[in-house]
């Protein structure tokens, strides 16, 4: 039929909704499938699948692991949100990685040098991160809006540039000082008054849950409100669903590209904050890297839905943490990477299958209700031959 | 109204070329074809008529092997066949000429024709010499007048269609299916096509001709089958039936008419355009110094063969495309306004391609109600979307504009084309537009929806709406317009009085052959 109703890529990146039990069934089936694949790999490598899974589950629910799972998930969640904002508008912000690293570095440097009362310093540090992330992503948006440069290309290149700039800034001549008791170097530590307080949420461990988890939850709510309740969010989603229709409706797509990249970059600028303000208090050479790419996987898993991304972040984080036991038992923990990869792939396949099923079901329902309702009144226009939709 | 110009069925043939018995095809929720019976004699032009969505295209896809019937038997020259793909149909001597041409513009006729069935020389090289000779032979034998070495982009619409016909003849087709072949042609080209078809059937070929243009069907067909709502409702002899009877068989009820004769034109200018020029990417003027004025209560029709600048003109007025010249909305110069501001200023827009420009297909109806009106009540309050307001107003549109849907939460993609269009018309009529830009407002919608849309346009016009109507449907243009202008290669070449012009005269003006009336 005529131009397809939303392409496959739209569905992959979650601009198409799934409703009811299907939205749950698809990811659950995918995870089950991923577990089967992982089990096969374990069998091939001579390990007992069930014993391995049991080991991971047992280790994963220990109090310390649970806290770490929540903490990792906080970071992953922000990364997922940053990517998802772009996805909702058909923008693939691969550059979250460079954005958050540069943002965290500069924010840490400011936090270590500026003398301000504690809570105010926290606000300043976060603001610097947000600003740096937004500006770094803004370059991508500007290039796309003015010169038509693909955001995928420019943001990948800016990742590499961010790595270079970061390496240059993090030298003793500029921002770095030696980290006490190691040969590591990092920015000056943020004073204790500006540490983001954590919660002793889970009994049985001294490790605290990042206080930033509250900020992450608030960001999720803000994301949802922005997208579904505001005119800006409507324009953003409309542009993602059909750029031509958005243009005809009066949306200035170039402005939207720039605004969306700025927002995505701003959220990316927060990705390093839980770690910076809740655990390491300085940006050193061993600051976590690659979170931007984890964010892409998690946004895909969560279909860009705020709750979905949360579930994806928790799952991912749980697998990361519970796999730490495997090395001790002589099982390669890389098995978990296989599992994570399979989950992403199978979730995408499952969403696609469910989507097709849902489209056909909706068309059936519409035509059934119409033919039932009008009772063969013979009037033209009564038959609903769905247009622009998938039949077959 | 006119007797059929029956071509020369040379022989009385015992064996029909195509026989369909009890063909049934179901799609999810819809029976596209129900117990279809059809017998096409060899050497006949057999017309299949029915309104949009009646199931003609599905039936032809079945015959051409693109879809498989759920029930029923297909016989070609008396032998039952079951095609799994179009290749099977081609082998059996069936060829299909699609409504939309499938030609590569930057290749020659020869290259286009051999594409996919290249004659080989020594197993590897394409034997262009043999192909050229064969094309010449076919072209001469059937009087198609095709020059194999012309570039397709240099050919007119009529010639392109003959290339399409030649393509299927080249593959050995003896039974040709023509899907709405006249949709893209002006009346003169239609006559030429019909002459070609008469030569083809005169030489023993069989043609199945799908159309909903009844005058044309009556002038060319030897037999007519009427399809309504997926069923064969009548087999008629073209010499024994009038266009009106045929139309009533097709629709199954009284016919709508686009006539509006009581003038509601005022002398208040609603939209005026001066010296509007739109440049195509190659620097050519797609719209060239166009000027017109539309008054309140006036429908200004733009007639023209598609691709003569209508789309660019409309998009320039909507601010979607950069243009030189000035556009005034009432007294305000809106030339530098954004699309959003023009829409907020009271310009409604029914786009030519509802899927590309009019709808978010995979969004629910109520979100589609917001599209294009996202800054205004009842859809928004300041920066916030007013969900309740938008939903309520979507219910109103569905009710007032008879959008047949089980609810406003279904996706736009689940509605039929006519209902999608009614939603768009309802949306664009909401919020008190001053000017409506209506591009092909009833294209691809069924007769019922068409009549409803015309009624809405007429009512709005009576209330003082100014309408710019761009259409390819000459009856619609003549019937609805108060003023008619003809566009050719981006220029307004003629002003026509819609109350005095016939579709034929308008057709001549559209090709530049006619004189101003």
Automatic annotation (TrEMBL), chain A:
InterPro entries assigned to the protein according to its UniProt record, in alphabetical order: ABC_transp_permease
GO CC entries: plasma membrane
Biased composition (Gly residues): 372-382
One Pfam family hit: BPD_transp_2
A molecular-function term among this protein's GO annotations: transmembrane transporter activity
Region (Disordered): 368-392
UniProt superkingdom: Bacteria
Compartment(s) of residence: Cell membrane
Keywords: Cell membrane, Membrane, Sugar transport, Transmembrane, Transmembrane helix, Transport
TM annotation in the entry: 21-45, 65-87, 99-116, 122-143, 155-180, 200-227, 256-277, 335-354
Protein name: Simple sugar transport system permease protein
Segments of skewed composition (Low complexity): 383-392
PANTHER family: ABC TRANSPORTER, PERMEASE PROTEIN, GUANOSINE ABC TRANSPORTER PERMEASE PROTEIN NUPP
Topology in membrane: Multi-pass membrane protein
Principal subcellular localisation of the protein: membrane
UniProtKB/TrEMBL annotation, chain B:
Keyword Transport belongs to the record: yes
This protein's GO CC annotations: plasma membrane
ABC transporter domain segment(s): 18-254, 271-514
Record SUPFAM superfamilies: P-loop containing nucleoside triphosphate hydrolases
GO molecular function annotations of the record: ATP binding; ATP hydrolysis activity
Keywords from the named record: ATP-binding, Cell membrane, Membrane, Nucleotide-binding, Repeat, Sugar transport, Translocase, Transport
Localization terms from the record: Cell membrane
Listed PROSITE patterns: ABC_TRANSPORTER_1 (PS00211), ABC_TRANSPORTER_2 (PS50893)
The keyword Magnesium is assigned to this record: no
Any matching Pfam family: ABC_tran
Signal peptide: none
Membrane topology designation: Peripheral membrane protein
Main location as per UniProt: membrane
Protein name, entry field: Simple sugar transport system ATP-binding protein
Biological source species: Sinosporangium album
């Amino acid at each position: 039929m005529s131009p397809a109703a939303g392409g496959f890529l739209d569905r992959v990146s979650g601009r198409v909704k799934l409703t009811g039990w299907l939205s749950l069934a698809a990811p659950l089936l995918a995870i089950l499938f991923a577990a089967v694949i992982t089990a096969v790999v374990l069998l091939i490598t001579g390990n007992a699948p069930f014993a391995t899974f049991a080991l991971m589950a047992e280790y994963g629910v220990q109090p310390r692991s649970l806290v770490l799972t929540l903490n990792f998930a906080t970071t992953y969640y922000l990364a997922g949100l940053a990517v998802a904002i772009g996805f909702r508008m058909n923008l693939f912000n691969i550059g979250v990685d460079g954005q958050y690293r540069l943002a965290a570095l500069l924010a840490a440097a400011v936090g270590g040098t500026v003398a301000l009362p504690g809570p105010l310093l926290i606000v300043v540090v976060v603001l610097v991160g947000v600003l740096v992330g937004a500006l770094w992503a803004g370059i991508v948006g500007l290039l796309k809006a003015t010169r038509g440069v693909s955001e995928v290309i420019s943001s990948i290149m800016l990742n590499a540039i961010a790595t270079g700039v970061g390496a240059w800034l993090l030298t003793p001549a500029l921002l770095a000082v030696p980290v006490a008791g190691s040969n590591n170097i990092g920015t000056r530590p943020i004073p204790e008054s500006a540490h983001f307080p954590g919660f002793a949420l889970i009994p049985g461990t001294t490790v605290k849950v990042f206080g930033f988890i509250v900020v992450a939850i608030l960001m999720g709510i803000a994301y949802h409100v922005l997208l579904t309740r505001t005119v800006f969010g409507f324009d953003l989603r409309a542009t993602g669903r059909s750029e031509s229709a958005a243009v005809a409706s009066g949306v200035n797509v170039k402005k939207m590209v720039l605004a969306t990249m700025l927002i995505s970059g701003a959220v990316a600028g927060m990705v390093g904050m839980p770690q910076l303000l809740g655990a390491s208090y300085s940006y050193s050479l061993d600051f976590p890297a690659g979170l931007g790419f984890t964010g892409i996987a998690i946004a895909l898993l969560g279909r860009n839905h705020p709750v979905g991304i949360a579930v994806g972040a928790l799952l991912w984080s749980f697998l990361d943490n519970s796999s730490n036991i495997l090395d001790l038992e002589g099982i390669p923990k890389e098995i978990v990477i296989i599992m994570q990869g399979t989950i992403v792939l199978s979730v995408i396949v499952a969403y696609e299958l469910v989507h097709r099923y849902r489209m056909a079901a909706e068309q059936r329902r519409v035509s059934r209700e119409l033919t039932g309702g009008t009772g063969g009144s013979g009037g033209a226009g009564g038959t609903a031959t769905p247009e622009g939709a998938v039949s077959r | 109204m006119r007797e059929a110009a029956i071509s020369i069925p040379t022989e009385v043939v015992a064996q029909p070329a195509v026989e369909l018995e009890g063909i049934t095809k179901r799609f999810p929720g819809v029976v596209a074809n129900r117990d279809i019976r059809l017998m096409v004699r060899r050497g006949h032009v057999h017309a299949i008529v029915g309104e949009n969505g009646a199931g003609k295209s599905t039936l032809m896809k079945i015959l051409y092997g693109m879809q498989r019937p759920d029930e029923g038997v297909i016989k070609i020259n008396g032998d039952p066949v079951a095609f799994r793909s179009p290749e099977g149909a081609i082998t059996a001597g069936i060829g299909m000429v699609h409504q939309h041409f499938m030609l590569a513009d930057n290749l020659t006729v020869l290259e286009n024709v051999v594409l996919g069935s290249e004659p080989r020389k020594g197993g590897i090289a394409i034997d262009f010499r043999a192909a050229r000779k064969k094309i010449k032979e076919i072209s001469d034998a059937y009087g198609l007048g095709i020059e194999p070495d012309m570039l397709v982009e240099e050919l007119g619409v009529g010639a392109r269609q003959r290339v399409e016909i030649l393509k299927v003849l080249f593959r050995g087709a003896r039974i040709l299916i023509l899907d709405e072949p006249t949709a893209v042609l002006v009346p003169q080209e239609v006559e030429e096509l019909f002459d070609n078809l008469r030569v083809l059937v005169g030489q023993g070929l069989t043609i199945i001709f799908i159309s909903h243009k009844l005058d044309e069907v009556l002038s060319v067909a030897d037999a007519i089958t009427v399809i309504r709502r997926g069923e064969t409702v009548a087999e008629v002899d073209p010499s024994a039936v009038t266009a009106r009877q045929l139309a009533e068989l097709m629709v199954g009820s009284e016919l709508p008419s686009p006539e509006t004769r009581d003038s509601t034109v005022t002398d208040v200018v609603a939209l005026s355009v001066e010296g509007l020029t739109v440049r195509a990417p190659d620097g050519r003027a797609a719209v060239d110094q166009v000027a017109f004025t539309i008054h309140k209560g006036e429908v200004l029709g733009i007639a023209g063969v598609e691709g003569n600048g209508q789309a660019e003109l409309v998009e320039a007025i909507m601010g979607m495309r950069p243009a030189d010249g000035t556009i005034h909305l009432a007294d305000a110069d809106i030339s530098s306004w954004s699309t959003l501001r023009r829409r907020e200023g009271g310009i409604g827009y029914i786009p030519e391609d509802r899927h590309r420009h009019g709808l978010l297909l995979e969004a629910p109806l109520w979100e589609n109600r917001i599209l294009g009106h996202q800054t205004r009540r009842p859809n928004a309050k300041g920066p916030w979307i007013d969900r309740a307001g938008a939903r309520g107003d979507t219910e109103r549109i569905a009710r007032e504009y008879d959008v047949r849907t089980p609810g406003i939460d279904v996706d736009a993609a689940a509605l039929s084309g006519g209902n999608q269009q009614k939603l768009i018309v309802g949306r664009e009529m909401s919020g008190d537009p001053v000017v409506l830009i209506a591009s092909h407002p009833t294209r691809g919608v069924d007769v019922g929806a068409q009549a409803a849309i015309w009624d809405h346009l007429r009512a709005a016009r009576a209330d003082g709406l100014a309408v710019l109507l761009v259409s390819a449907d000459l009856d619609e243009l003549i019937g609805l317009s108060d003023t008619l202008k003809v566009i050719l290669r981006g220029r307004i070449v003629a002003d026509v009085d819609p109350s005095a012009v016939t579709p034929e005269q308008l057709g001549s003006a559209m090709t530049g052959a006619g004189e101003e009336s």
